[in-house]
TrEMBL record:
Classification via Gene3D superfamilies: 3.90.320.10
Species in which this protein is naturally found: Streptomyces filamentosus NRRL 15998
Pfam families, sorted: PDDEXK_1 (PF12705)
Keywords from the UniProt entry: ATP-binding, DNA damage, DNA repair, Helicase, Hydrolase, Nucleotide-binding
Source domain of life: Bacteria
Gene Ontology BP term (one): DNA repair
Record protein name field: ATP-dependent DNA helicase
Region (Disordered): 1-26
Domain PD-(D/E)XK endonuclease-like, first and last residues per copy: 107-360
GO molecular function, one term: helicase activity
Lineage: Bacteria, Bacillati, Actinomycetota, Actinomycetes, Kitasatosporales
Length: 371
């Protein structure tokens, strides 16, 4: 034990006050000289089959003494020494109350379907049901602001003018928390580019499609095999094509984009189309039930290919009108996983940005200490 103020070359004065003769010992101690390390060693000794019965009993007695120590308010000083804090001693428990009532339609959002069916059910459970997601990030704030401004333009509340949109953006931008001023400036430039792409897309002739609704809320119940699934959400934009069909547009502000094959089977777009088929947009089509005419992702952060306008326009990824029953099968798969409460981890590229790695048994940092 040495004093930092003595530059580490003299023993601490406290040793002399304790009546201990300093002795220089070269090397590191076999464990850190801290309470947590002591408790860990004693706990390991109590279950070590190679230790003698006397040693294991002595370790247990010392743990009991540590566990009994309390402060002036009766709070334990070494709570980790008490067996009730030891992970793995009890059998796994199961809630007597089911997560969802099987007699009621299962409520899901369109964006949750991809997580449940194709990504990771554990991630869905911890984020959506446990509500353990991290607080909203600046990137999410970026997306929210751009979506609101796009809605204002589509509804006519704000003119389709970049200078006006940037004034609106400036009024709220400082409310977004960025790690550094340079990051804020960088993201603001990205927001300007995204809004500019949106405006170019907004005035573009999109095959005769005309807007009918913006940020359209819907609530429909779909039959998926033996399950009833209630889908509630909001469509960024609904348009009517030249044939009178409903076309759904979903604006994206993320830095990644799905592949062409992934867009063809994109669960969120497909559920939007299925919802259209079940009456989700009847009210904006004057009570008429339109056929779904397709859907698309508009990637506002990403430029279109050069043959489609280049950097001035957003990348557009279209999904053809639905064919077959694959969406209903996907909904049934998702519903079964939720109702059976099968929330097992599935590894993939999504793991790199998952907020629950420390709670995931598929990751080294998330495995149980008793494994």
């Amino acid at each position: 034990m040495k004093a930092p103020a003595d530059d580490g070359d003299q023993p601490s004065r406290f040793l002399t006050e304790l009546g201990v003769e300093p002795r220089d010992v070269t090397g590191r101690p076999r464990r850190p000289l801290a309470v947590a390390a002591l408790v860990a060693e004693l706990r390991a000794t109590t279950v070590d089959p190679a230790a003698s019965d006397a040693l294991r009993e002595a370790a247990a007695h010392r743990l009991a003494r540590l566990a009994a120590l309390t402060d002036d308010e009766g709070q334990p000083l070494v709570p980790a020494a008490h067996p009730y804090r030891w992970w793995g001693l009890e059998e796994p428990t199961r809630s007597a109350v089911p997560l969802r009532d099987r007699d009621q339609a299962l409520s899901l959002s369109p964006s949750a379907l991809d997580q449940l069916a194709n990504t990771c059910t554990l991630q869905w459970f911890l984020g959506r049901e446990v509500k353990a997601d991290a607080p909203a990030t600046a990137a999410q704030g970026f997306g929210n602001v751009v979506h609101v401004l796009a809605d204002e333009v589509a509804s006519g509340r704000t003119p389709a003018d970049l200078d006006v949109l940037m004034e609106r953006l400036d009024s709220v931008w400082n409310g977004l928390a960025f790690d550094a001023p340079w990051k804020s400036e960088q993201e603001k430039d990205q927001a300007r580019a995204a809004l500019e792409r949106f405006l170019h897309w907004h005035v573009l002739d999109r095959g005769g499609r005309t807007p009918t609704a913006s940020e359209h809320d819907f609530d429909v119940t779909l039959e998926a095999g033996e399950y009833a699934v209630r889908i509630r959400g909001s469509m960024d934009r609904v348009e009517e094509d030249a044939e009178g069909r409903a076309y759904v547009v979903d604006f994206k502000t993320g830095k990644g984009a799905p592949t062409k094959d992934e867009v063809a089977a994109h669960p969120q777009l497909a559920v939007y189309q299925l919802a259209v088929r079940e009456g989700a947009v009847d009210e904006v089509f004057d009570g008429r039930r339109p056929e779904p005419g397709g859907a698309e992702l508009v990637q506002l952060r990403q430029p279109a290919p050069k043959k489609e306008g280049g950097d001035a326009f957003p990348k557009v990824q279209a999904q053809e009108p639905l064919a077959g029953e694959w969406v209903s099968d996907l909904l049934a798969t998702a519903a079964k996983k939720v109702l059976d409460e099968r929330f097992t981890p599935t590894t993939g590229t999504h793991c790199s940005h998952c907020a629950f790695r420390a709670s995931c048994s598929a990751q080294p940092e998330g495995r149980q200490v008793v494994e």
